[in-house]
Amino acid sequence: MDIKFEKTGNVNAEITVTINKEDYADRVEKALKDYRKRASVPGFRPGQAPMSMLKKRFGNEVTAEEVNKVLGEKLYGYIREQKINILGEPLPNVEKTPEVNFETMESFTFVFDIALAPEFDAKLSKKDTVDYYTIQVTDEMVEQQVQMYASRGGEYQKVDEYQAKDMVKGTLTQLDENGEAKADGVVKEGAVMLPEYMKNDEQKALFNGVKVGGSIVLNPFKAYDGNEVELSSMLGIDKAEVANCQGDFKLDVTEITRFQPAALTQELFDQVLGKDAVKSEEEFRAAIKNSLQEQFKNDSQFKFMLDLRTYLTGRVGTLEYPEEMLKKIMRLNNQDKDEKFVEDNFEKSKDELTWHLIKEQLSDQFQVKVEQADVMETAKQLTRVQFAQYGMSNVPEQMLNQYAQEMLKNQQQAENLVYRTVENKIAAAALALVKLNQKEVSLEDFNKMFQSEQA
Questions:
Q1: CB 322: neighbour CB atoms within 10 A?
Q2: How confident is the model over 279-291, as a mean pLDDT?
Q3: Strand (E) or helix (H) holding 360
Q4: For residue 168, how many other CB atoms are within 10 A of its CB?
Q5: Residue 60's pLDDT band (boundaries 50, 70, 90)?
Q6: Architecture field, domain 129-144+269-454
Q7: Residue (of 193, 171, 174) closest to 183 by Cα position
Q8: What are 193-209's pLDDT values in tens digits?
Q9: Higher per-residue pLDDT: 48 or 246
């Protein structure tokens, strides 16, 4: 076995592998013996076919297979042992590789083109300074969360007199031009209305102060701006009949219902945060504030990684890449795409490759290791955030585990979780090492930064 490595440029190299008979002969012999045990050859009992016959019939095929196995093992073993940092996979150099004939040859030479990763230093130290944004949690945000929880725990109650946002139920009777019940007109019992959502303010105002048992005269067509869907649903008629109902209706009110948010009591505190987690409204608000701060930490860390990327890619500058080889690799990996796809996406792929190489260097610096338990915790954390967005902050551990396990069953999601876990570990280590340029911002200003980056 002979392996030679030769740089052909700053980021290009060739590896030449020569495989001799002694490198594969024993393996070929063993493979043929194993095949002999299984082979069913006419005229011979199983396992009794002559080796000479098997070599003649299958020797070249088995030799080719074993030579290729040896080639792969030795090639990648050499790259690992010599710690050669390559990009993509070694590509066979057809022009420099001599023609192979397994029937007449005993030694074989293979030449591979290698794309080398550029050399740079992206390691971090205490001398590096990176922005870190802390999102302010205001009393207004806490109040919005409190009201959301109160609304989720609220209920509808029957009341006697209408107020804005109440739901009104009653009998609608179509009137003629004299204000009397129209002969053969529409009569809808149990009609339901939410006056607050009416399009016409004058019609909406007719409900002010109305009581159960009272009545008003309104024009539903005006109230809902002639919307056929809303009117046909409310009046219980086909949309085609709406045009015949543009006049007044009398509403005899039979019921008024008001949504009453839950009171800030121990019952609500327990529903949201778990039994006896807090004992007062003050503690409840403090817990909500802490929860918001934890949620925003994820956003702050995400922004930190974006800023770290900008900082480090700027620090390492423009890196030299073996562009022709990378384009060739890109074509091989996207054979269903045309040349335009490669040209349109190549520069972006170089940017992503630079960041990938920087992260690899940071992973080595911080000795990042990802275990299955780490990926599971990342999945659970994402699940917590998703539930929190729906106002569920007291999710049982069993449910978190169940949702996380479902995420990991999807290969694409599992790969994304590993990717995210690595970034989380890098972020945590970098945050503990570099000097942070602390900046406190409002949620609105924080979101604007992302909008400006996307513009």
A1: 23
A2: 93
A3: helix 339-365
A4: 20
A5: confident
A6: Orthogonal Bundle (1.10)
A7: 174
A8: 999 999 899 999 999 99
A9: 246
Query: Does this model's pTM top 0.85?
Result: no
- Please, which residues bridge with residue 113 across strands? 14, 91
The CATH number, out of the four listed (3.40.50.720, 3.30.70.1050, 3.40.1390.10, 3.90.226.10), of the domain defined by the range 2-116: 3.30.70.1050
Q: Which two tokens stand for residue 433?
A: 């090492």
Confidence grade of residue 50 (pLDDT, cut at 50, 70, 90): low
Are 325 and 115 spatial neighbours (Cβ–Cβ below 8 Å)? yes
In three state form, how does the secondary structure of 337-354 look?
CCHHHHHHHHHHHHHHHH
Dist. CA 112–CA 381, nearest whole Å: 44
Provide Rg for the chain, Cα atoms. 37
According to the model, what pLDDT value does residue 241 have? 93
Q: Which of 203-212, 281-290, 397-406 shows the lowest mean pLDDT across its residues? A: 397-406
Whether pLDDT at 216 is above 70: yes
What's the token pair of residue 220? 């539903």
Could you report the per-residue pLDDT of 120-160, keeping only the tens digit for each? Answer: 999 999 999 999 999 999 999 999 999 988 988 888 999 99
Terminus-to-terminus CA distance in the chain, angstroms? 57
For the chain, the structural domain boundaries read: 2-116, 129-144+269-454, 155-260
Distance separating alpha carbons of residues 62 and 243, to the nearest angstrom: 84
If we measure between CA atoms, which residue out of 108, 105, 114 comes closest to residue 69?
Answer: 108
**Residue 90 burial class via C-beta count within 10 angstroms: exposed 0-12, middle 13-18, buried 19 and up:** buried
Residues β-bridged to residue 91: 113
In single-letter form, the type of residue at position 44 comes to F
Q: What's the per-residue H, E or C state across 308-334? A: HHHHHHHHHCCCCCCHHHHHHHHHHHC
CB 165 within 8 A of CB 207: no
Residue 171 contacts residue 254 (beta carbons within 8 Å): yes
**Can you give the length of the chain in residues?**
455
